[in-house]
Design brief:
The chain is of the alpha/beta class. The chain folds into 2 domains: about 180 residues, Alpha-Beta Complex (Spore Coat Polysaccharide Biosynthesis Protein SpsA, Chain A), CATH 3.90.550.10; about 40 residues, no CATH class. Strand 6 and strand 7 form a beta hairpin. Helix 6 runs parallel beside helix 8 and helix 8 runs antiparallel to helix 9. The N and C termini lie far apart (about 40 Å). The relative contact order is 0.15.
Length: about 230
């Protein structure tokens, strides 16, 4: 079963190299690497052109409309049955990460595991509809066809992955949480450094996707957290 590892990058060549080395080190043999570069000016296009990797590499370098637009481009280029997004600076926790995931069984539409964050294991929650993401996209394998049926909504600059996860769950797609630590999570991403903006985008997603009953469940706690973050300048 072929897995597509999609990496989105822009002017982050050292981080991109780190991520690609992590992909190439995987012991699981059926992997393709897809790099979507947003027309970087730091030598990334030249670096990609000069690579001679041991696994299939597909790449493009062109302007885009943000990270989620680039991720959609990567989906369109994928040949694998499943995709995982490992953007520049993200790395697999070890060489056997993909092999361990596949060994758990890949019969579901969405298979996700845990992450290593600042040296500690952060466990994802069991499948459910929620007011927030309960897993990281760096630790989730989604059927490529599902990603094409429910592409990232680029009008949400912070929470398109949250919206997509909700859409898949509400559409009745099957989810499976596996007890495998998959990735070493990069904590410098925009969702961590601009917390209140991300929470506001989550609120917009809930208004778009959830029933009024679920909105009554989710929005009060989300609004409280949003106001708290704003007051703290986060």
């Amino acid at each position: 079963m072929l897995i597509s590892v999609i990496t989105v990058t822009y002017n982050a060549l050292p981080a991109l190299k780190q991520t690609l080395q992590s992909v190439w080190a995987q012991t699981y043999p059926e992997v393709e690497c897809i790099v979507v570069d947003g027309a970087s000016t730091d030598g990334t296009p030249q670096y990609l052109a000069g690579l001679k990797p041991t696994i299939p590499l597909i790449y493009t370098s062109a302007p885009d409309h943000g990270i989620y637009d680039a991720m959609n481009k990567g989906i369109a280029m994928a040949h694998g049955e499943y995709c995982i997004f490992m953007n520049a600076a993200d790395t697999f926790v070890g060489p056997q990460a993909l092999e361990e995931v596949v060994a758990q069984g890949m019969a579901d539409d969405v298979v996700y595991g845990d992450i290593l964050k600042e040296g500690n294991i952060k466990h994802a929650a069991n499948p459910r509809n929620s007011h927030k993401m309960y897993y990281c996209h760096q630790a989730v394998f989604t059927r490529t066809q599902c990603l094409r049926d429910y592409p990232f909504d680029i009008s949400h600059t912070m929470s398109a992955d949250f919206k997509q996860a909700k859409q898949l769950f509400l559409a009745g797609k099957s989810f499976k949480h596996i007890p495998v630590v998959i990735t070493a999570y990069d904590t410098t991403g925009i969702s961590n450094t601009r917390r209140s903006k991300g929470l506001l985008d989550n609120i917009k997603v809930i208004h778009e996707t959830d029933s009024w009953k679920d909105q009554l469940r989710f929005l009060p706690r989300l609004l409280f957290t949003y106001i708290s973050c704003k007051l703290r300048g986060r």
